[in-house]
Amino acid sequence: MKAQFKNYLSLTKKEWNGMVVLLVLIAVVLVAPYIYQWYHKDNTINVTAFNADIAALDEANPPLSKDFKSPKTVLYKFNPNTISTDDWQRLGLTAKQAAIIKNYTTKGGRFRKAEDLQKIYGLTKVDYARLAPFIIIPEEKAKPNIVVELNSADSAKLTSIDGIGGAFAKRIIYYRERLGGFISKEQLKEVFGIDDLKYDEIKGQVKVDANRIRKININAITFDKLRLMPYLNYKQVNAIIEYRNQHGDYASIDDLQNIAIIDADILRKIGPYLIYK
């Protein structure tokens, strides 16, 4: 019995060496924090210097006093066609609202009556009700009744339209060239930046001679040329060319109805521009 107990507690040399290594590791882990603190002592905070830095910071950025008040909105008589972005903000509008209005007038937009201000995107009914009594729009001198034909007008002629500046004139000409000309003046609303408000402003000053449009020979036009047509996307242009290659020339617009991705609305738009030679 005693011999068995002794054999149970006895250690081999390999086990003894392992136990020694384990004890050494435990000792190192326990002593390591003290050694670290010995070689890395915390720096003592200089309270005087710290307080001086805080005081300097407060002096550079003084807190708002209880008596501080944000600038009050000042309402005064103004012409919405001429005042600056800063003036709009003094009237109580946000920087974003002021920028939208200024962008509108810079591009040729005009307020002809106080009610026109209500059409500006982002302007609330409360804003308008507050500003309306102070709006003054001087009566404009009557201008000659000039009506510009859209398909023949150059940039100079287009800028004679009240409400159309140089930027809009360039966009109209660029779109007209891609389209082949305007069939109706309502197509102006397809030009980038001409929304319903702008269109209502200029529609009485323009007309369209549909006989001036440039026709497209659908049986001869190349992919790259047809790609310019604003009403057709890449896949639709490709489908038109491929159908022609596979089935021969188009006889009428009815043949285009056989192309699945060309719907009735697209046909209605491109139909007046097509010829079948």
Automatic annotation (TrEMBL):
The lineage of its organism: Bacteria, Pseudomonadati, Bacteroidota, Sphingobacteriia, Sphingobacteriales. This is Helix-hairpin-helix domain-containing protein. The chain crosses the membrane at residues 20-39. The keyword Repressor does not apply. Keywords: Membrane, Transmembrane, Transmembrane helix. It comes from the Bacteria. The keyword Phosphoprotein does not apply.
